[in-house]
Amino acid sequence: MTRWAESGRAGQGREYAARFAALAASGADMHGEATRCVAVQPPPARVLDAGCGTGRVAIRLAELGYEVTGVDIDASMLAEASAAAPHLTWLQGDLAEFAGGGSFDLVLAAGNVIPLVAPGTEQAVVANLAAQLAPAGGLLAGFGLEPACLPIPEAPVSLVAYDVMCSAAGLELADRWSTWDGQPYTGGGYAVSLHRARP
Q1: Mean pLDDT of the chain
Q2: Measured between alpha carbons, how far is 8 from 5 in angstroms, rounded to an integer?
Q3: 31 in a structural domain
Q4: Pairing of strands 104-109, 133-144
């Protein structure tokens, strides 16, 4: 069972979609992740949104000219994504096992995806996401490093551990920020990391 399911949030796609709609209506910037994608891999490009949830980021990326595929384990989230953008490709699957074809220019894992996978599968997830990349592709992931930045009462993945996982998958750190808007990482409870294949 994923930590996402253990947290009690699985099956709440409609609630999540409504929450983000309310945030957007309030004037909040809902596109920080997409903006960072543009900075590291401008369109046109193929993007896999891993742990896509209700499709908020994937839909924005498609609007910006990307060819986007979304994958998530939570059927309720995918139902919302598919209803909002039926023309996009949405797949249900475990990130440790699904086969995406290995030709994406960018794999995005936003929204605390890495800490919320099933305990013990983190390395398999990172390896599988790396396997979805085209030769010059990148893995862009943002997640909390302390409970205050996570929807669970623990921080199961440190940056050191994550970098080791990426290295084992043939990736090396290319850049790291503290926020999706590109502030340099100098420590703190949240990090956004870009890893690319070792030359």
Answers
A1: 91
A2: 5
A3: no
A4: parallel
- The pair phi, psi for residue 95, each rounded to 5°, is -65, -20
Q: Residue ranges of the alpha helices (H) in 52-187?
A: 56-63, 75-84, 122-131, 159-168
In a domain, 113, yes or no: yes
Range from 29-38, 71-80, 145-154 carrying the lowest mean pLDDT: 29-38
Please report which helix (H) or strand (E) contains residue 16, including its range. helix 13-25
Q: What is the pLDDT of residue 11?
A: 60
Cα 106 to Cα 12, 14, 36, 138, 150, distances in angstroms: 27, 27, 11, 5, 24
Which residue segment(s) compose the domain that 50 sits in?
3-19+39-197
Backbone φ, ψ for residue 32 (5° rounding): -60, -40
Please indicate, yes or no, whether the overall pTM of this predicted structure exceeds 0.70: yes
